[in-house]
Write a structure and sequence with these properties.
CATH architecture of the largest domain in chain B: 3-Layer(aba) Sandwich
InterPro entries (chain A): Rhodanese-like_dom, Rhodanese-like_dom_sf
Number of domains of chain B: 2
Strand order of the largest sheet of chain B: 1-5-4-2-3
CATH superfamily of the domain at 33-140 in chain A: Rhodanese-like domain
Strand content of chain B: 5-15%
Largest interface: A-B, 64 and 64 residues
Mean pLDDT of chain A: 82
Radius of gyration of chain B: 28 Å
CATH topology of the largest domain in chain B: Oxidized Rhodanese, domain 1
Order of helices and strands of chain B: HHHEHEHEHEHEHHH
Low-confidence stretches of chain A: 180-186
Number of helices of chain A: 8
Protein name (chain A): Rhodanese-like domain-containing protein
Organism (chain A): Maribellus luteus
Structural class of chain B: alpha/beta
Strand content of chain A: 5-15%
Oligomer: heterodimer
GO molecular function (chain A): thiosulfate-cyanide sulfurtransferase activity
Order of helices and strands of chain A: HHEHEHEHEHEHH
Strand order of the largest sheet of chain A: 1-5-4-2-3
Largest sheet of chain B: 5 strands, parallel
Number of helices of chain B: 10
Shape of chain B: elongated
Domain Rhodanese (chain A): 59-150
Radius of gyration of chain A: 26 Å
Chain lengths: 203, 211
């Protein structure tokens, strides 16, 4: 035969040898760091406690609450319809199956927003879409939904609207009796935290 | 009879051109700006390390220029930076973080042994960039706890923040279960305390599919 075939064979062998130098990559598919960084700097992933409360009350079927706190904390208190995926056990196939379902909005919840945000970054690196962070977390939930603060009399209309929604949500979530607006009955508002912008105060 | 058997030289030329093309392709392959240095597992583990963070009272030394290995980067946008920032901080607004020259700058600082402290409006703003930079191998990047807001409230007496926990995150500030329990005189509070509804890991994959 002729040289060319031998030459071609050798060439193929050399190229095949090149694959030896490829590194093994056991990691699941991941988003390019540059794209991830661009997503990270967008604040669109934050949802407020009011929005979450509204979705729960309306029974929004696309809402999926994922609590990233530890199992003990989760047993102690959790939002209705939430599932528990502690941050350190994210990477099990069982837990990952909650993510990336088309048409669902996954909202991460933690004590405040840092752990939830960390979870968000990690799932984003894995390429999951439709994930959000509840801004302020459960601490903010307590302050805004469970014990909403009454805005001052001269508060804006929007503040009053928010407050009345929160009072309704409070009844929904705690079963607390609605205060009768009786003149004689003066409800003592426990003001633990001073905030300037009461109802809309950001957590 | 094949064409190369008629003209072996031609085949050889074509083959050489092919090889040259491959080599050139490999050599000019664009190196990505950043690549993950930590696996997912390592990234999760790293989140529990305290060396990720820089405490507000440590700023005192930086502002007084007692250390020369720490550089502050303000990731808020230029306008807000102009209205006020921590003395000595440089502006590297979040929108510019992906720029090649800024990544190069971070690499240079890492080689020279500088510690880079990022800060945003609050801890949350800096959390994402911190995690990303850590994951792509900038082990010298830290995040200022509390962010600029906390610094601004306490800038006259940063040392006293040692005893404050106002900037700390990641723990419950209230007894949730107690707070959310039905109040006295609740409509539906029976004799027994209402159980907080705990729904555990119910698969909802089903919801995505049809009937």
């Amino acid at each position: 035969m002729n040289r060319n075939y031998i030459f071609l064979t050798l060439l193929m062998l050399v190229l095949a040898a090149g694959t030896v130098f490829l590194t093994m990559d056991d990691e699941p598919n991941q988003v390019d760091p540059e794209i991830l960084l661009q997503e990270i700097i967008q604040p669109t992933r934050y949802v407020s406690t009011d929005q979450v409360a509204k979705m729960i009350i309306q029974g929004d079927p696309s809402l999926m609450l994922i609590d990233v706190r530890s199992e003990d904390d989760f047993q102690g208190y959790s939002l209705p319809r939430s599932v528990n995926i502690p941050l350190d056990s994210l990477l099990t196939a069982d837990n990952l199956s909650y993510l990336g379902i088309p048409g669902t909005k996954v909202v991460f919840v933690s004590d405040d927003d840092i752990r939830a945000d960390q979870m968000w970054v990690l799932t984003k690196r894995l390429g999951y879409k439709g994930t959000y962070v509840m801004r302020g977390g459960l601490n903010c939930w307590m302050q805004t939904i469970i014990e909403p603060e009454q805005p001052s009399d001269d508060a804006s209309y929007a503040d009053m609207e928010t407050y009345s929604f929160r009072k309704g949500a409070q009844i929904y979530f705690t079963g607390a009796e609605e205060e009768t607006s009786d003149g004689a009955k003066v409800e003592v508002q426990v003001q633990k935290r001073e905030k300037t912008n009461v109802a809309l105060g950001g957590c | 009879m094949h064409i190369h058997e008629l003209n072996p030289w031609r085949t050889l030329i074509a083959l050489s051109a092919f090889v040259v093309l491959l080599v050139v392709g490999f050599l000019t392959m664009q190196k990505p700006l950043m690549a993950y240095q930590l696996t997912m597992d390592e990234s999760i583990k790293e989140l529990t390390e305290s060396e990720l963070y820089f405490y507000p009272w440590d700023l005192e030394a930086v502002i007084a220029k007692e250390t020369d290995t720490i550089i502050l980067f303000d990731i808020r946008d230029r306008f807000v930076f102009g209205q006020g920032h921590i003395p000595g901080a440089e502006n590297l607004s979040a929108n510019d973080l992906t720029k090649e020259e800024n990544i190069a700058r971070l690499e240079e600082l890492k080689e020279k042994g500088f510690t880079v402290v990022l800060y945003g409006e609050d801890e949350l703003q800096g959390n994402g960039p911190l995690m990303l930079f850590r994951q792509v191998g900038f082990s010298n990047v830290k995040l200022l706890l509390g962010g600029y807001n906390y610094y601004f409230q306490h800038k006259d007496d940063l040392y006293s923040t040692v005893d404050d926990d106002g900037y700390l995150k990641g723990f419950a500030r209230f007894d949730y279960a107690d707070m959310a329990a039905p109040k006295e005189g609740a409509l539906n509070s029976g004799a027994e305390k209402k159980e907080v509804q705990v729904q555990r890991r119910e698969k909802t994959n089903v919801a995505a599919g049809g009937c």
